[in-house]
């Protein structure tokens, strides 16, 4: 009798794959908007035309009043207020600028200094003509060529920061995302990593500070930005990458600003999110290979056993 | 009382008390299987293996899962996924097996329909199998509630709402099932109990019934040929193994079962390690939030076809047809009036078309059940749902006019 098993196998695989294709790639393609990445080029922002001078930049940053709100721990300048009070004043704690030059794109930093709401893509929320000012005051220039001055400031920030390849996942995440988003599974709160306290009382006091901070943040953003512990599982990596690049592309009108990270820093942010939400991915790869080897050997033995048993049957 | 003699050895001692040799013959070496079958007949063993994977991985998960609305999500996504050694592995095995078990069930079901394996004394095999399908569905649904993510919560909300019966507005019944106005602690506790105790017990019992139902009529074969098992097994036992139309279940067919299981497990573990998100829906990795409805609510893929029979109609008609779709498969042995027991392709054009159309249409329903019910998709869904019902209503007429082949 003719062996029909190959054709039966093909029929089974065909119908299974059609079903899989329709309910997975096809349906998700229809349900979720496709957004193309510009690979963090920020093409809408003007290119830097001037070469910055680090020493001038340092002077400018101090004279322009940046440190009135921002700390620069690395340069020995502490924060003027603690995070809770800063959030009460500005809505969100202004970032420490020590590593800003390594985490954020230079074009983005330049535009941010001159026109924060535009760089952050939150002009729908902060409309100057209606008197809705972004809490970060724009830099209007110190009397010289403003583009040169901005280039100097960016050059100083880049000089102050670690070199881009020294940026760690935690550094990228805490700078770019961590003042709005908590990551409970990594013990991260919007005011920093929660230390392990000896006394319950101290732990609760810390929690209260976080809650106070979150209260101000909620008022500022409209809702409390979500905890990102397992966002790497609940959103695809591609979604997160394009969302970080420009939140408006996915969610027009969202209060989340474009954070302006470099492509490398975005990778680091995603790595941090994987460490939190897909912690065992390396172990999964390793064990996966071992299990496969084991099962293939099992299948070979099963096949040989079948051949031996069936030799007498035909 | 039976007479017991001094045992000559352990085997004899057991034989006198448990009749192990007889049991071995009945269940294994003299459980006769036709030779004229293909790898689709190994799906039963594949299902047993998958069920064991579910049971074992479930036992490990049960050690760490906390069935409270405050702790459930954390216990699954933090404790099991990060803290427990290999907790992630057990969860992925459990989630993927829960999905794959339905793929194999559907293959098993359509194999039965194609070869007419529900006819001529095999009705109880079919009915017990369909009861297993219902029990597995309930098991899958109750398990889906446990991580207490967004999809758990909203699927729980949508499915329990069905019990209001549309215009009947039996809201009291819905509240009674939930133990609350919305899915909450009482609901989670109940579904936890169902998932880890009552339904697994029912499944194990039904598996026993399914196997028992198979023992007397024996399994069908590729041509629906009636085999005289006494004559053929005698040939085999007399040494004419090649001439006999039957073989032993063990080791003869079991060796093939194991070969198919081996190939299946390669596919299964590929999914577990490299392609698992179809079975562990991303939306369910957001914690349950009663104030935030997800943009798209859809059941797992294996429920989509019946969901799509509910969706295109108004609520009352939808519920009636949904109920129809849930139970109609059970009655297949009685709706099929044909005298033929042979592959669908040889039963004449009408049934051949019926079979392949039913299979394709259920895939169409499955796809439409997931897609948002808008534009062309909702039209296709409506047509497919009507076609499904019409096909079942037409089945007795088509099959009673079938000529004997």
Description:
- The complex is a heterodimer of chains A (314) and B (405).
- By secondary structure, chain A is an all-alpha fold.
- Chain A folds into three domains: 1-31; 32-279, no CATH class; 280-314.
- Chain A is built from 14 helices and two strands; from the N terminus they run H-H-H-H-H-H-H-H-E-E-H-H-H-H-H-H.
- Chain A has a two-stranded antiparallel ribbon with strand order 1-2.
- In chain A, helix 3 packs parallel to helix 9 (200-221).
- The radius of gyration of chain A is 26 Å and the shape is elongated.
- The N and C termini of chain A lie close together (11 Å).
- Chain B has 405 residues and is an all-alpha fold.
- Chain B has a domain at 303-405.
- Chain B has 16 helices and two strands.
- Chain B has helices spanning 10-18, 20-29, 43-62, 72-83, 87-115, 123-145, 150-161, 171-178, 185-215, 229-237, 249-274, 304-310, 315-328, 332-335, 349-370, 375-400; strands at residues 32-34, 246-248.
- In chain B, strands 1-2 form a two-stranded antiparallel ribbon.
- In chain B, helix 5 (87-115) crosses helix 11 (249-274).
- The model of chain B has no long low-confidence stretch (mean pLDDT 96).
């Amino acid at each position: 009798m003719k062996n029909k098993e190959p054709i039966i196998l093909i029929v089974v695989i065909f119908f299974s794959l059609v079903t899989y294709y329709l309910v997975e790639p096809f349906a998700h393609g229809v349900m979720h908007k496709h957004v193309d990445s510009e690979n963090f080029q920020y093409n809408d922002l003007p290119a830097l035309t001037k070469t910055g001078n680090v020493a001038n930049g340092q002077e400018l940053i101090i004279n322009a009043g940046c440190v009135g709100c921002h700390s620069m721990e690395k340069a020995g300048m502490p924060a003027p207020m603690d995070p809770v009070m800063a959030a009460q004043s500005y809505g969100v704690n202004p970032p420490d600028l020590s590593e800003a030059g390594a985490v954020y794109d230079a074009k983005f930093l330049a535009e941010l200094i001159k026109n924060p709401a535009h760089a952050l893509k939150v002009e729908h929320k902060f409309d100057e003509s209606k008197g809705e000012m972004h809490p970060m005051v724009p830099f209007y220039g110190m009397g010289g060529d403003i583009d040169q001055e901005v280039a100097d400031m960016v050059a100083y920030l880049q000089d102050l920061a670690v070199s881009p390849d020294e940026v760690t996942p935690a550094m990228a995440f805490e700078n770019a995302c961590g003042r709005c988003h908590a990551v409970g599974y990594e013990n991260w709160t919007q005011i920093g990593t929660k230390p392990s306290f000896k006394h319950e009382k101290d732990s609760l006091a810390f929690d209260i500070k976080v809650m106070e901070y979150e209260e101000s943040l909620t008022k500022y953003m409209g809702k409390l930005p979500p905890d990102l512990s397992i966002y790497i599982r609940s959103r695809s990596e591609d979604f997160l990458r394009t969302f970080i690049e420009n939140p408006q592309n996915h969610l027009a009108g969202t209060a989340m600003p474009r954070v302006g990270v470099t492509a490398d820093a975005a990778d680091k942010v995603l790595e941090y999110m994987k460490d939190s939400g897909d912690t065992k991915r390396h172990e999964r790869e390793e064990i996966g290979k071992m299990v496969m080897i084991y099962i293939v050997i099992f299948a070979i033995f099963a096949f040989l056993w079948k051949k031996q048993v069936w030799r007498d049957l035909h | 009382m039976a007479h017991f003699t001094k045992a000559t050895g352990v085997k004899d001692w057991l034989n006198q008390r448990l009749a192990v040799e007889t049991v071995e013959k009945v269940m294994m070496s003299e459980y006769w299987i036709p030779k004229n079958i293909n790898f689709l007949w190994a799906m039963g063993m594949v299902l047993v293996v998958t069920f064991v994977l579910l049971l074992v991985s479930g036992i490990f998960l049960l050690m760490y899962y906390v069935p409270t609305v405050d702790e459930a999500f954390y216990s699954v996504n933090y404790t099991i996924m990060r803290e427990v050694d290999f907790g992630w592995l057990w969860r992925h095995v459990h989630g993927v097996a829960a999905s794959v078990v339905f793929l194999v069930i559907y293959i098993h079901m359509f194999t039965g329909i194609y070869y007419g394996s529900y006819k001529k004394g095999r009705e109880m095999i079919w009915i017990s199998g369909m009861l297993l399908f219902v029990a597995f569905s309930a098991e899958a649904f109750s398990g889906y509630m446990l991580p207490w993510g967004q999809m758990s919560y909203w699927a729980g909300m949508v499915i329990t709402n069905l019990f209001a019966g549309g215009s009947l507005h039996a809201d009291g019944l819905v509240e009674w099932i939930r133990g609350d106005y919305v899915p909450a602690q009482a609901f989670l506790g109940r579904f936890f109990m169902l998932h880890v105790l009552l339904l697994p017990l029912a499944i194990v019992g039904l598996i026993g019934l399914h196997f028992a139902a198979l023992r007397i009529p024996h399994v069908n074969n590729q041509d629906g040929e009636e085999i005289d098992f006494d004559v053929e097994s005698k040939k085999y036992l007399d040494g004419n193994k090649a001439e006999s139309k039957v073989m032993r279940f063990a080791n003869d067919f079991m060796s093939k079962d194991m070969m198919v299981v081996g190939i299946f497990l390669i596919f299964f573990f590929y999914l577990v390690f490299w392609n698992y998100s179809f079975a562990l829906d991303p939306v369910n990795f957001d914690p349950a939030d009663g104030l935030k409805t997800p943009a798209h609510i859809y059941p797992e893929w294996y429920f989509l076809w019946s969901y799509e029979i509910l969706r295109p109609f108004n609520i009352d008609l939808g519920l009636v047809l949904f109920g129809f779709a849930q139970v109609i498969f059970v009655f297949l042995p009685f709706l099929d009036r044909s005298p033929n027991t042979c592959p669908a392709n040889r039963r004449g054009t009408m049934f051949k078309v019926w079979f392949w159309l039913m299979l394709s249409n259920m895939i169409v329903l499955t796809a439409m059940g997931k897609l948002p019910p808008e534009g062309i998709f909702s039209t296709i869904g409506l047509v497919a749902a009507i076609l499904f019902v019409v096909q079942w209503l037409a089945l007795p007429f088509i099959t009673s006019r079938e000529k004997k082949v």
